[in-house]
Design brief:
Elements: E1 3-12, E2 16-19, H1 20-24, H2 31-38, E3 42-45, H3 52-67, E4 76-80, H4 91-98, E5 106-110, H5 116-129, E6 135-143, H6 153-156, E7 161-171, E8 176-183, E9 191-192, E10 209-210, H7 212-233, E11 243-246, H8 251-261, H9 272-275, H10 282-292, E12 301-308, E13 312-319
Parallel strand pairs: 4-5, 4-6, 11-12
Antiparallel strand pairs: 1-7, 2-3, 6-7, 8-13, 9-10, 12-13
Helix pairs in contact: 3-4, 7-8
The protein binds oxa(dethia)-CoA (UT7).
Oxa(dethia)-CoA binds near residues 37, 114 and 249.
Length: about 325
């Protein structure tokens, strides 16, 4: 049997930091409101001309270095993004070029918004397990700051830019223990960015619109259910989870999921206070932080979960 395993992680945040206090000068909000309702204190914002593929490149270089491989060993690139550089070609192809990879391996983007990284890890795992790829680079990268209306306080305080990446490789023992993905398109209007040019002219509002409370309620229920599903598939319980690495959207959603699992918050990796909701980048950003500071160790069970527009949601249980 072939399995897959994460062998390296990397992440990157743009230099510019925008604090809640900076936002108080832009929209009618307060640091107190943002921290209490979301847990976010600051976010990073791309420089003019800095693109999703640039963030993805920095995170990928760090992941490749930590994996101890050469870039041209990568025969699959999956970039989860909802803010690609261009309509086409894919950010994954642009990243492949920036990494100097010319081995003809597959590269494609995956659009599941904030659910994107768990979708991408599951996809890469299946490619590796079926023998279609040996070494996969899985990236979550976003420039959400270009998709928010900076006059809309209900959304602009929540999002930030960043990228994270993992290298996954074929392995004799299982590194991905269980995974489950879901979507329910009936809720597409609750979290969306309508703008498109596919009907012959630029149409619709390009900025993020979110029914925050409705998303919140759905998220708490859906995430609790999906983490239970993967644990059941793996024959485990909440107590077997060493680290929960959740999508970083709202500390209250994270706390609710941890509570349902019976996990204390010291077993939950939270980084959202200093980068906000970076959509598909948030899990690999948190994962990389906890791997690099030594919290996540070989042999431990690590549970990832996320939900995003669509809705899309899912969870992946890994043996580190
Ligand atoms: O990543 C994809 C998934 N996304 C999520 O998981 C996000 C889910 N939703 C949330 O995280 C929360 O719903 C929010 C953080 C977006 C909002 O928190 P909330 O506790 O649901 O607040 P709310 O939307 O019910 O708004 C409460 C009040 C409202 O005022 P009134 O109507 O009570 O007078 C808002 O107008 O807070 C007001 N408000 C603000 N006040 C200060 C909304 N945004 C702000 C703001 N600053 N930035």
């Amino acid at each position: 049997m072939i399995y897959s395993k994460v062998i390296g992680t990397g992440s990157y945040l743009p230099e510019k930091v925008l604090t809640n206090f900076d936002l108080e000068k832009i929209v009618d909000t307060t640091d107190e409101w943002i921290v209490t309702r979301s847990g976010i204190r600051e976010r990073h914002i791309v420089a003019v001309g800095e693109m999703t593929s640039d963030l993805a490149l920095q995170a990928s270089l760090r992941a490749i270095e930590s994996a101890g491989i050469k870039a041209d060993e990568i025969d699959l690139i999956v970039v989860a993004t909802t803010s690609p550089d261009k309509m086409f070609p894919s950010t994954a192809c642009l990243l492949q070029d920036k990494l100097g990879i010319a081995n003809g391996g597959a590269a494609f983007d995956l659009q599941a918004v904030c659910g994107g990284f768990v979708y991408a890890v599951n996809t890469a795992d299946l490619y590796i397990r079926t023998g279609q790829a040996k070494t996969a680079l899985v990236v979550g990268a976003e420039v959400m700051s270009r998709m928010v209306d900076w006059t809309d306080r209900t959304t602009c305080v929540l999002f930030g830019d960043g990228a994270g990446a993992v290298v996954m490789r074929a392995n004799d023992a299982p590194g991905i223990l269980a995974a489950k993905l879901h979507s329910d398109g009936r809720h597409h209007a609750l979290l969306r960015a309508d703008g498109n040019i596919c009907n012959g002219e630029v149409q619709g509002d390009p900025f993020i619109k979110m029914e925050g409370q409705a998303v919140f309620k759905f998220a708490v229920t859906a995430l609790s259910r999906v983490v239970d599903e993967v644990l059941k598939d793996a024959g485990m319980q909440g107590a077997d989870v060493d680290w929960l690495v959740p999508h970083q959207a709202n500390i209250r959603i994270i706390e609710a999921t941890a509570k349902k699992l019976g996990l204390s918050m010291d077993r939950v990796v939270t980084t959202l206070s200093h980068h906000g909701n970076t959509s598909s980048a948030s899990i690999p950003l948190a994962l990389d932080a906890a791997v690099r500071d030594g919290r996540i160790k070989a042999g431990q069970n690590v549970l990832l979960e996320a939900i995003g527009g669509g809705f899309t949601w899912g969870a992946v249980l890994l043996r580190w």
